Amino acid sequence: MNEELDSQLSAMFDNELPAAECELLARRLSRDEQLKARWGRYAVIGATIRAEGGVRLNAPLASRVSAAIASEPALAAEAAPQPRKRIENRWWQPVASAAAVAGVAAGAILWMRTQSSDLTPAVAQTTPVVPAMAALGNIPVSTVAQVNTGEPETYVVPRLPTHRRLVVPSTELANYVVAHSEFSSPVARRNLLSSFMATESGTAGASGGSEEITEDVQDDAKTPQ
Amino acid sequence: MPRPRSERSNAFALSSLFTLALAVAGAALAEEPGKWLERMNEALTSRNYDGTFSHWQGGRVEMLRIIHRVQNGAVSERLVSLDGSGREFIRTGSNLACYLPDKRTVLVENRPAQESLLSGFPTINDQSASFYDIKEVAQTRLNRRPTHVITVSPKDEYRYGYRLWIDESTAMPLKTQLCDARGHVIEQVVFASLTLASKIPDSAFKPEVSTEGFQWLRSDATPSKDVAPVDTVVWEALKLPPGFKMAVRKAQTLPGSTDPVDHLVFTDGLASVSVFVEVKVRPQPPSDSPDDAPVDESATVGSSSAFSTVIDGHKVTAVGEVPPATVRFIANSVQAGAVSGGPPPAVGPRH
Fold this sequence. Notes:
The complex is a heterodimer of chains A (225) and B (351). Chain A is an all-alpha fold. Chain A is 47% helix and 0% strand. Chain B has a twelve-stranded mixed β-sheet with strand order 7-8-9-10-11-1-2-3-4-5-6-12, covered by helices on one side. In chain B, strands 14-15-16-19-18-17 form a six-stranded antiparallel β-sheet, with helices on one face. A two-stranded antiparallel sheet of chain B has the order 13-20. Chain B is mainly β. Chains A and B meet through α3, α6, α9 and α10 of A and α1, β1, β2, β3 and β5 of B.
């Protein structure tokens, strides 16, 4: 998905996209699988925030979009969760009980920035991707201006680690990852399995796999002596 | 106008009391950081929860869902990628299944029943304190919930550090950052929603993915102690990074393979590295091969590292949540020791 589309989707979710563009995008949403997936993720976070009461999402948005996606039951279920659906589809809805809800984290706090009434449309249109990514808990935020100060909000994206990239795990490596994870600390284990689950593969079919392990990409790493 | 002496005395007494209280609180606080890590590990492994979180690493962000349940001593767990790959990892008791729709493959491993996930992870001990600084750096609110911010800073470059936002009432980590030795964030997990439920139904641990037409690769359910051949080479690491010690040695068969591997686990109390040694000797490359020297290979899975090499004809692969140099160091230091007359002795917390 290109950045422009992502920006538009983010703006639409914030109800900051002009009506005409919103209709166009909603139409596209109904036939673009990738865009749907992105929308689904926004919906997950939106539902969470609504339940927490931290942020009020704009109701008209839901109705505008629902018209376009009504023909897509799966997507409609994500965008407008139905509490009485079967339980497998209810996981994103936090239990309302305060005791049962352990919390919504920084993603929600950052998301709130986009809801500030002082955030002008101009700002939203020039930096629309930022809140969307931050809302996904994407980026450690170094500097976040206070909401409602009237000042444009700024943040600093930390330098990405350039010396590593995600490689496609082979089936063999997958076996090793899973076997190792049994001996990791709980947090490390979750991180490791998350990375593995999130890895997209460009190849199909099972493979013996050792040839899929890529060349060393950590040449700058110093071997300890 | 000067205050009466008695009032000043009372004020002094109150002030002293307050100072004393602060001192006591400070002393208690000093003991807390490590305890918070213990409570967090306890919460993550023993509570029932269902959460959605974002996982950021290497410039990519993915949403995942985790469901965890401990019921009658049996751990059930499901981790699902909500984005692209649609992969799922499901544990139900001793059965581990990894659904890889992108590879149209399911990896299934049956663990011996006595092996419990709860006892497998490393535990922080006095020795770990020599290699990490563990501090509480702040008490703050994360989405209106009081949290304790705990940092675990490595003292050298053989390991990574953590910054953890631990929920005060549940001890669940609402946000975690993995940092390199210089403090740069290289991986981050932030919960978008988290529900601690008293009961989670069995249906929550069924895969969503349809496995029609998938290839199923299963491991032999034979207990690990029976897997090892009669004449077994005992593999050992001649040299390890400071603080790392071998915690587990076992033989096991992995899904899709009939050949066992020796599995050695090294830990410094926080980070762990697994070394897998293929028991079977690899065939020599063809004589017309331009280069018959084995080629070392590296890979990363998120912030974890893998390194593979060939030692005495055996493929040796190290995997761990440590910097690349550390897995390379450990893999390269593995050597075949004495030949024993039986299966390798099992050491570590599981046996």
